[in-house]
Write a structure and sequence with these properties.
single chain; 647 residues; 7-stranded mixed beta sheet; binds adenosine-5'-triphosphate; binds magnesium ion; ANL_N_sf; acetylation; ligase
Amino acid sequence: MTGTPAQDAYAPSDEFVAAANAGPELAEAAEADRLAFWGEQAARLHWHEPWTEVLDWTGAPVARWFVGGKLNVAYNCVDRHVIDGHGDQVAIHWEGEPGDSLDLTYSELLAEVSKAANYFTEIGLTAGDRVAIYMPMIPEAIVSMLACARLGLTHSVVFAGFSPTALRQRVDDAEARLVITTDGQWRRGKSAPLKEAVDEALYANGDVPHSVEHVLVVRRTGVEVPWTEDRDVWWHETVANASPEHEAQPFDAEQPLFILYTSGTTGKPKGIVHTSGGYLTQTSYTHHYVFDHKPGKDVYWCTADIGWVTGHSYIVYGPLSNRVTQVVYEGTPNSPDEHRHWNIVEKYGVSIYYTAPTLVRTFMKWGRQIPQAHDLSSIRLLGSVGEPINPEAWRWYREVIGGNKAPIVDTWWQTETGAIMISPLPGVTATKPGAAMGTLPGISAKIVDENGNDVTLGEKEANGYLVLDQPWPSMLRGIWGDPERYKATYWERYAEQGWYFAGDGARYDEDGALWVLGRVDDVMNISGHRISTAEVESALVGHHSVAEAAVVGANDETTGQGIVAFVILKGSAENTGDALIDELKAEVSRSISPIAKPREIHIVPELPKTRSGKIMRRLLRDVAEGRELGDTSTLVDPKVFEDIKSR
Ligand code: ATP
Ligand code: MG
């Protein structure tokens, strides 16, 4: 059951098409010979030694890409641009939350990364060792990641908003020898302690032994910190004094680059492992074509945190490999006020802006008068990632932020896929609001039923499972320390066919456009009809009073599941209680079908979100079914439930 109304597609302008990085020939080349195509993409990078084979899939489901090839990831992201004569180009326009800022050129970045690499070597770290990075969005965080990459160390970035318990879990799982952190971090004008959280993590559980030998601390807010002699060192007393000369050594294409724990929307975090050559190839390729990035001309801004995969692939590795000039912003979008992002866009002339639907909906809630008070004419391309974007939010984004002309790329991918898999190509695809449209050249996906049969194009009832039926260069190589869980989670469901099960539902519309419907656990069964939470949420957000909506299927004696909706109203909306609720129910009924009409609608002040900004439907289902709440450790603010339950 899908109720997406027929809608126009937005084709890119002739002007955009004429200058676009990607044309139709890209897909033609990929179709002609997929592996040769990936070989060509890998040639975007500098290889110290060439590979002998593009893909070795004999050890499936663990792939080896660019077999025998040797490269250095940091050399590709930094040194090579300096050697090519672009040392004076700004790599990072860094914008601190309190209003301080810093421009870092590629030459300066090279010096910083080299110093960190020299210091890491001095304290005895060698290729293969793990390093935990628990830092806010400051240049040293990116420098640390690149210094690890330079030495073949495997970094594990832990989002600095996570608790000491979450940090400890991740440090222990990866057996990190070094933790890099800051004294404190700025949050809405206040300094929140961070080093203290590291100490709490490392002394947790009555100080059971752990792997950490060193804690390296960057001074950021000046807050006082607890200190352990012999273990703790200041960055400004160590790294800052190290030599800025360092020669990058080549590593095997399959050298582990990082471990990143998924946010845990669906349970215990998994340490997703990514390696070097294939990962950098696909992040570089996608950043170049999906964002139509022009080095030396564009000013790019991805608003993610480096604690998420989006920060890894589309702040650090993809963009820097393509010689980006990018904005990195430390703070929240409303520090000191709701104009912050648009002030930054104006200040640096941002031309490519990549964010998440949750933020677009927040901007909508704050009102269009805020972005409209700014000159956003530099923006020529917009991106979205993290959740399905509601058509209403998509249109608002295009009109208010994109000046009715910037193409929107709705990019579907996962921590596990490492890089974008499904997305429009901005100079090629005519986009539909809310659709991720289709696979990128070189990527192959299918939408299938339980038994692996293709679902029928355009069939109204045909919501299916999204699977990836061919290996791709930036695919995960496993779950850290748990090969069995890797197989069970992703490869067991379609073991016979050898397909990767993404855990998301999707469908093709009449025109063959691909719509991602969110995770399969979020597809409801109402009297035998499969309805996705995303569709009902989009219908609710389509009402002029609603800013955000979360929908879950709760057990229902008559219909199997009944739809329970939680909505947040816009700042400007009037809460007329039952009258409004009836209106909203009628809206869903009209725009999808009477079957999709919510059984209950609750107007709430906030929705429970993970720290990466996604709605935690699993917990709302617990509320709707009157159960004890499950694990809330990755929630931003567990207190929202008191408000929700009290209604
Ligand atoms: P966990 O796996 O721990 O539950 P997570 O899946 O939220 O957490 P990520 O890897 O960051 O962690 O997110 C990937 C998921 O986000 C996808 O599987 C999909 O459900 C959703 N997603 C990402 N981009 C899009 C998009 N453009 N459209 C629809 N859904 C998207
Ligand atoms: Mg996931």
